[in-house]
Design a protein that fits this description.
By secondary structure, the chain is of the alpha+beta class. The protein has three helices and six strands. The protein has a six-stranded antiparallel β-sheet with strand order 1-2-3-4-6-5, covered by helices on one side. Strand 1 and strand 2 form a beta hairpin. Helix 1 packs antiparallel against helix 2.
Amino acid sequence: MLTTGQSAQRLSMSMSPEPRSVASVRRQLADDLHLWHTDDLVDSAQLLVSEAVTNAICHVDGVMDVGVVAIWEPPILRIEVHDADPTPLPALIGPDSTVSNGGRGLSLIDALASAWGCSFPSTGGKYVWFELHSP
């Protein structure tokens, strides 16, 4: 659902925890970012939301749904990915790590986002958020 306020615009999505959901989120986010005239943020936003949603789907057991919220309040785009599991995030894996072939999504978020973090709301679960600044 896309809503427009006086100064901020907001997109909210909810999806089942399936790999095909990642592509749907990317497409919807790109469509709305174009409507918001934030074309300069589309590529980074799509990459980072893909990583965050993939983490929520693949690395958390028993998640019933995943939610994504994007808020455009110029010049900042904030994206939050919510899941129902309160398990803390794993540590960042460096580019030279030999731990595994995967697991570098948070490192991408750390490298490309202006700011990012993880919060644990009182209602349960967690959300990973990141911000991108429009030049």
